[in-house]
Each structure stands twice: as C-alpha cells, then as structure tokens.
Amino acid sequence: MTMAEWMDGQLLAFVVAITLLSVTPGIDTLLVIRNTARGGLRDGVLTSMGICSGLFVHATVSALGVSLILLQSAWAFSALKLVGAAYLAWLGVASLRQAWKGGGLEVAAVSSTSRQAVPMWRPLREGLLSNVLNPKTVVFYMAFLPQFIAPTDPALLKSLWLAGIHFIIANVWQILVAVLVGSASHWLARPAFSRVLNGLTGGVLVAFGIKLALTRAPA
Fold first, then answer.
1. pLDDT (tens digit, 9 = 90+) per residue, 161-182?
2. What is the pLDDT of residue 16?
C-alpha cells in the first residue's frame, strides 16, 4: 500500500474518535494517576507505555480473528472477564491497604536523578496487564477497527498502523496527566492527602473490577 492509501479519508474520523476515547477518564487514567503518585513521573510514564503497548496485542488479536472466538464463546469471554476483574480488584485492595496504613505516599521527585520507589518493570507490568486483561478493549477493537479497514487492505498491518496512532495519542494524554500529577508531589506526600487519594483510587478500582465481573458475555 502507498502512503496515500494508509492516509485515507477515514483516518481523520479515526483520529477524532480515538482522541475522544483517550481523554475520557477511565481505568487507564486512574492507574497512571495512582502510579505517578506512588513513584513520580517515571512511574506514570512507564505505566502509560505499558497500557498503550497492550493496544498492539488487541490489534493483532482482532486482525487474526481471535476476538471473534471470544465474542462467540461465553466461556472464553467470561474467563478473560473474571481474570481482568480480579486484577483490577487486586490493585484496588492494595491501594485501600495503603490508605488504611496511612503515611505519606512515596512520591519521587520529577527529576530523573531522584530515587525511585519501585523497580521499572512494575509500572510497565501493571499498565500492560491492566490493558490486555480488559475484555472491553477486546470488544472495542473488534467492533471499531474493522470500520477503518477496507476489504483490500492487509488486515494485520492496517490494524497495527491504527493501533500505532492510538498508541501515540493515548500516550501524549496520559503522560500529560502524569506531568500534572507529578507537579503536585508536595501535596501527594502529605499523609492526610495520600490516605484520601489511596482510598478513592482503591475504591474506584475495586468498583471497576466488580462492574467488569458482572458484565454479561455478548449474545
């Protein structure tokens, strides 16, 4: 395919739709805020990179038709749904436990020379698993991407191309959120504020997990 074919007339519609999706507050934004508060800007950026890397997994799965199997199999969908719900609930319980213990959050300075609270792989893993184990993203990509792929397009390459655009847009937004949270590190380090933040984020994550677990398999 030529560059003109990649940059077809539907691309603008895709960019608009995916931008609106990216800036809508949800699990991804919440996890970026939580991890930035815990470990500073570095953790927020790594969490965003992990989350957005999962988009390529969903694009590949969608293009290869595995998503269709999940959508048609109530057992497969339910299994993935429960794993994702359990993971979100686990993250939420961890935040609630931190709120119960009290104390200030381990907020690293925004500078790259600052001491970090957790190893680099942890926010990456949390972001990636949060995205990959979310069946709503599977369903969304399966329903959304085909609208922008012509019958003559190479399905896998076009899906990855669109996921790459989503990757850039979502990362820009989430890293901006991380920068804003990181700039308020002096507030986040206060015990009272950190208990409220951990309590709220923990409660919302657990609620997301419960809501996800109660989501019905597609008919």
1. 999 999 999 999 999 999 988 7
2. 81
15: its two tokens:
């960019």
Q: Which two tokens stand for residue 198?
A: 């951990």
Residue 113 has pLDDT above 50, yes or no: no
What is the rounded distance in angstroms from the CA atom of residue 186 to the CA atom of residue 121? 25
Cβ 178 vs Cβ 45: under 8 Å? yes
pLDDT digits over 61-77, tens only?
A: 888 876 666 667 777 76
Give 33-80 as a DSSP string.
Answer: HHHHHHH-HHHHHHHHHHHHHHHHHHHHHHHHTHHHHHHH-HHHHHHH
Buried b / exposed e over 133-155, threshold 16 CB at 10 Å, is bbbebbbebbebbeebbeeebeb
- Say which residue the tokens 């657990």 belong to: 206
Asked whether the CA dihedral 129, 132, 135, 136 is positive or negative, the reply is positive
Q: Is 115 helix (H, G, I), strand (E, B) or coil?
A: coil
Q: The dihedral of CA 158, 124, 91, 109: what is its sign? A: negative
- How crowded is residue 63: how many other Cβ atoms within 10 Å of its Cβ? 23
